[in-house]
Amino acid sequence: MILERSESQPISGDELSRFFEECQYTAFRLETLQVYDVGYEEEAFRRFLADGAVVTSRSHEEWARWVGSGRQFRRVHVVAEPLTDYVRFECAWAYRSSVEAGEDVNILPVAEGEWPQGIPRFDYWLFDSHQLVRMNYAPDGSMLTPDLVTDPQQIVQANVIRDRALHLAIPFTEYEKRFDADMRSL
């Protein structure tokens, strides 16, 4: 099975932050959820739904600092179309500013009910191709716990999944051309 939950241990948010500070070369994120419930985004998401406003927050500034640190940050988000309100918000609010800061954001679009072969239905971070953190979420998209995966075979598998996802995905800058200016509709 792809990236089993065995041979892993829960880590704290502070420990996860340390991986970002200590990675030397690369950080890769696979995102698979269509809705995330992240507390620091709540007000920005509410405003986006109300009037399309896109606001910058302290979390954007911190992320820009990490991304602009000379290391390579890459991401693939598997998105089901039609997009959820949250994914539209994420594209308009987070991805545009992440790309401006230097992150390589990619989108792997799929039709609703379909899923790309060889790509798991869960999220992870892979730091410097050898430190793997599986991100565990509740069904509503709220974070449960990140788990540090120590099994070498699963770490190798995460690298293979990363390569496949990047091969199948398109750059966010190309994907967003399909939308109107505020990501309201295709």
TrEMBL record:
Domain DUF6879: residue ranges: 14-176
Record-linked Pfam families: DUF6879
Listed name of the protein: DUF6879 domain-containing protein
Source organism: Nocardiopsis algeriensis
